[in-house]
Amino acid sequence: MEGDSMTTQTPGVADLGPLNRAKEQKAWYYYDWANSAFSTTIAGVLFAPYLIAIAKEAAVDDRISVLGLSVAPGALPSFIITASTLLSAVLLPLLGAVADRTERKKDMLAGFAWAGALAASLLFFVTGDNWQLGAISFIVANICFGASAVFNDALLCLISTEEERDHVSSRGWAYGYAGGGILLAINFVMVSFHDSLGMSEGFAVRLSMLSAALWWAGFTLIPYLGIRNHPVAALEPVSGGIVSRSFGQLWATLKDMRNYPVALTFLVAYLFFNDGIQTVIASASIYGVEELGFATGTVLATYLLVQAVAVAGALGFGRAAARYGAKPVILVGLVIWMAIVTVALFLPEGQLVPFLVLGVAIGVVLGGTQALARSYFSLLIPRGKEAEYFSFYHAMDRGTSWFGTLVFGLVYQLSGSYRPAIFALIFFFVVGGALLLKVDTRRGIEQAGNAVPRSV
Q1: Which residues of 72-151 form beta strands (DSSP E)?
Q2: Model confidence over 34-43: pLDDT tens digits?
Q3: Which CATH number does the domain 255-456 belong to among 3.40.1160.10, 2.30.40.10, 1.20.1050.10, 1.20.1250.20?
Q4: Using one digit for the tens of pLDDT, what is the confidence trace for 82-131?
Q5: Contact 304, 188 (CB under 8 A)
Q6: In sequence order, which residues have a C-beta less than 8 Å from that of residue 429 and are 6 or more positions away?
Q7: pTM here?
Q8: Distances from the Cα of 346 to the Cαs of 287, 352, 354, 358, 419, in angstroms?
């Protein structure tokens, strides 16, 4: 670890490392608070239905032309999200290589965050039948969102020791769910009561998306001002300009990955269980409305409940990891996820209380499993390559995140019911958990040259 966090205390001089780290950690938490506005208000709730409505205005015979292809308006958001996801999977590893060759990681985080927020703010001007502006703006914003996450996660390794990592990561996720939930609740009121507020529903939606962009940009100032740039370390000697050096770093890391088999095993396990988590979240609203017969407002209110519970869940999982280690706690979380999709198979139609209980269960494990996965992976990667390895972490996540939705869609197509479709996702939790059981935590940490925490 660079800088103050690893300095040797001189006799008679106070060790300011913990104090300096604490200040940077508090600033770092606010990036999760900032970017969650985009992931909840825009990507999670409002963008897709609004773009579909705009595309319908431009449709001829219920079709629009996208790069020469005839596309139904209802399918447009899926194609856009897929395109931005695949572009991210290609670009993020190169960005990670660039980031590891510069000490200005927090500058790059802020730069991509502000570029993404600017692109997201253009959604306010998507009116009439101008779906093209909405598509381009979202693609750019979503790519910038992923890029900024690479630098944000790499900074986790620079502002915390191995012993602190689970706690810091969990608190960051908690901030994220709190920030995203607060703004989403405000926007929920604005959209739901737009008539009383003297605005049309379309304007209320556009104003909500603009508020998310401004929230993202504004709160990014806190980590930008509160985190310092840390010097680079442990890079392979490659020559040339920054682009050629970055490609050289990328190639060196690809070859070097075989020296960290434990990290690779965990990465594959993460791809499975995280795909299951993302698909449950993405499909929950469809399941609630189409299969259980709840109104959209009820499902959105449940979504807010999940956000609120996830704050406590992330903090609780962080405390449990400090006592028992991250791996056992993640495994417990995966067992709970298996129980969730099993209970969903039998959930009675139209009964609100069981649906809310299931929402609370999702909230408990949602933030915790993802927060601990981030901090656990950080222990298994070598110093000086934080951004590079986290770029693969995010790129592979995005590049394979369609498997779960594909399984969900195929099972629904074959069965005609969302119940077996949601239950089929248990496969991802079982496989991910089985692979995680094979991960030797202590060996992986030692392979990466990191200090072994008290609880592993």
Answers
A1: none
A2: 999 998 889 8
A3: 1.20.1250.20
A4: 788 778 877 877 777 677 667 788 999 999 999 999 999 999 999 998 99
A5: yes
A6: 272, 273, 276, 334, 337, 338, 341
A7: 0.78
A8: 12, 14, 10, 11, 8
